[in-house]
Amino acid sequence: MRQKTAVNSKFVQKLGKTKLNRYTKCVEKTLIILKPDSVQRGLVGEIISRFEKAGLKLVAGKMVKPSEDLAGKHYPDERREFIVGMGEKSLANYKEAGLDVKKDLGTSDPHEIGLKIRRWNMEFLMSGPVMAIVLEGPHAVEVVRKIAGNTLPIKADPGTIRGDYSFDSALLGNMGKRPIRNLVHASGNKEEAEHEIKLWFTDEELHAYDTVHQKHMTA
After folding, report:
1. Which of 139, 185, 207, 216 is catalytic?
2. pLDDT tier at 13, thresholds 50, 70, 90
3. Which residue in 38, 69, 178, 208 has the fewest CB atoms around it within 10 Å?
4. Is the CATH number 1.10.10.10 carried by domain 1-65+129-170+180-219?
């Protein structure tokens, strides 16, 4: 099964069934995509090491140049709430900057703006190879997003991946008619992670093994 946690017999004996059950209930898998800007800037090793140093387990990884079909499924246009949300954020950024959104984007409709941003995101994802990985660990979705930082690099805290390696903003992206170059995609919640992992990986590509972190984090 895709969401089962791999533990060997010695780990089970040492931990005990009660603690093991508590541990496995907290364990999640999550998808991270190191986008073309991460790859082209030579940040792949640095970014992955940050997740590993936090105790997350790398259970799958591959470099791939996404097809339009894969990019479209990753950014599905039927997620109207998500599409409109992107558009509304852009409208708020233009208002804050005192700029004319219609002049730049040709519309002030949040859904239409969101669809433009979706297309930019797809085109950027397809523009070069990306590194897709699956990480596993307790509270993996939340931990990864915390380490990655705010999706808007301009608002990301120092010490996070986006805060340290990018200063991009929604306003710069929209004015350049391009997506925000924020280095990584990280699944937003457990359900999204399960869906996205199935898009990018087969069951056979997900690996099971134990790490020393399991011993230290569950003692």
Report:
1. 185
2. low
3. 69
4. no
